[in-house]
Amino acid sequence: xxxxxxxxxxxxxxxxxxxxxxxxxxxxxxxxxxxxxxxxxxxxxxxxxxxxxxxxxxxxxxxxxxxxxxxxxxxxxxxxxxxxxxxxxxxxxxxxxxxxxxxxxxxxxxxxxxxxxxxxxxxxxxxxxxxxxxxxxxxxxxxxxxxxxxxxxxxxxxxxxxxxxxxxxxxxxxxxxxxxxxxxxxxxxxxxxxxxxxxxxxxxxxxxxxxxxxxxxxxxxxxxxxxxxxxxxxxxxxxxxxxxxxxxxxxxxxxxxxxxxxxxxxxxxxxxxxxxxxxxxxxxxxxxxxxxxxxxxxxxxxxxxxxxxxxxxxxxxxxxxxxxxxxxxxxxxxxxxxxxxxxxxxxxxxxxxxxxxxxxxxxxxxxxxxxxxxxxxxxxxxxxxxxxxxxxxxxxxxxxxxxxxxxxxxxxxxxxxxxxxxxxxxxxxxxxxxxxxxxxxxxxxxxxxxxxxxxxxxxxxxxxxxxxxxxxxxxxxxxxxxxxxxxxxxxxxxxxxxxx
Amino acid sequence: xxxxxxxxxxxxxxxxxxxxxxxxxxxxxxxxxxxxxxxxxxxxxxxxxxxxxxxxxxxxxxxxxxxxxxxxxxxxxxxxxxxxxxxxxxxxxxxxxxxxxxxxxxxxxxxxxxxxxxxxxxxxxxxxxxxxxxx
Lengths: 500, 135
What we know:
- Chain A has one domain (2-499).
- Chain A has 500 residues and is mainly α.
- Chain A contains 23 helices and two strands.
- With 135 residues, chain B is mainly α.
- Chain B folds into two domains: 2-51; 61-124, no CATH class.
- Chain B contains five helices and no strands.
- Chain B has helices spanning 2-20, 28-51, 61-80, 83-95, 103-124.
- In chain B, helix 3 (61-80) packs antiparallel against helix 4 (83-95) and helix 4 packs antiparallel against helix 5 (103-124).
- The relative contact order of chain B is 0.09.
- Classes of the chains: A mainly alpha (500), B mainly alpha (135).
- Chains A and B meet through helix 8, helix 9, helix 18, helix 19 and helix 20 of A and helix 1, helix 2, helix 3, helix 4 and helix 5 of B.
């Protein structure tokens, strides 16, 4: 086992170290840091925007780059939180509290450094975690038949909807709507066109990129335009980057605990890095000897959450890579990216495309290292970027969205679809329907249907097949368990309190 | 509040259409989903009515309309007139959706972004779009 792991990692190292993959990894983390620093544009929208542009590069490099954007954004978000008291990403909202206080006390340097160190540590641990647990999990999943897959996806979708913040019924409704949208196009078995409304452009289904860009990028711009723009960069020079021995001693435990919490939440579908970061903050505050320091620049309040959100972001890759189940909106897009490159997600990925799996894992580790090197010396550059006004930024975002979408099929029809989903996205935002469950449902929709049908075909239309096979039964029971637990008002209230 | 319920009603009506126009066989799965969705829709609407929920959140109607409009125009111009006119309209249109509109600044932005994307996408990535063409 140990030798095998070592060999696999070595193999991955060989893949990741190739010049091409290194360059794409670098581009990924650079873009990720950039959008992480800039508030108002998140990793989901960026990945959706850049996805069409990765058609021409090999799949391994494309996935490495897209993953880099994701965890790069987790790093970048902390910079804005600490220096501007404005979260660059939702995941680093909690870092604002103590990080900004530290900056005001002239300790911005140590705060930034500890955030980077914590994130790096979490990144390393989680990379190892994926390498250790990914293969056995995938091996286990190889025994799954259609009934198991159906039940597993059902559980994943229900969990994602229930754990997502916001109204549970609304989220479940969005999952169902997403599944429906996923059905648009030709039926796999009969070739009959469904929900095409006479548009031949819809015969291949709606592109995942169109939905993602519409719901996240366009809708986000509209809601940002409704807000007043105010941004005050904390102007004092960032100097004295190195944390003191005392800082390191105080943060060490927080980083460990944050990583653990993040890894735990990371595997749960539907939870966001923000939830992991928040719970880490609560834990640190609770176990601290002197709670009054929190809110006044406690370094644990930066170290814990920053480790947690990075750990969460990376562990989200585990279910995606081994089972083909997306645990978050970004992972749904990653699955979409795999499919666009002709790779069927699922446990067989590890066997058929070992270069993808191990290359990605090692590239994440390399990427994390690049981020530390990239972030700390270049802080000044990132800060000056914050002075770019949003009114100059969003037309550029629109431009990237439009050209990106248009270049997929060179079709204007898809631009109109994009506009439509933009409007829907805004509407749903106002009505407080979360678009993430819809994304998950949309990506999984065709797979859910296929497995349901195949399972029923094999069992001659007998629906008990889902309950008589033990693995499938345990997933179904898991689904019910999640639903029942969340229906209890006490549990729900408590959970809502954490997530809000 | 009224708008919220109205929108919810539209939302549900749309669901109904989806639910009922299906064939059996390939339509089985969507049929089930449609029914579930309608049930959820009713649940949400009833809850909304009882609580009298108010809609909130930041957004700008002007932004929504102008952004959508510039996207559609981009689509049309891309087919009829080529990349450059489409880009100019898109950037100009979406920039005017912002709160502060400064003519000089926007013009400058349009030029810079257009040149940049022509260089990046057409020459750099080799996307086969005509820069400009007659109607």
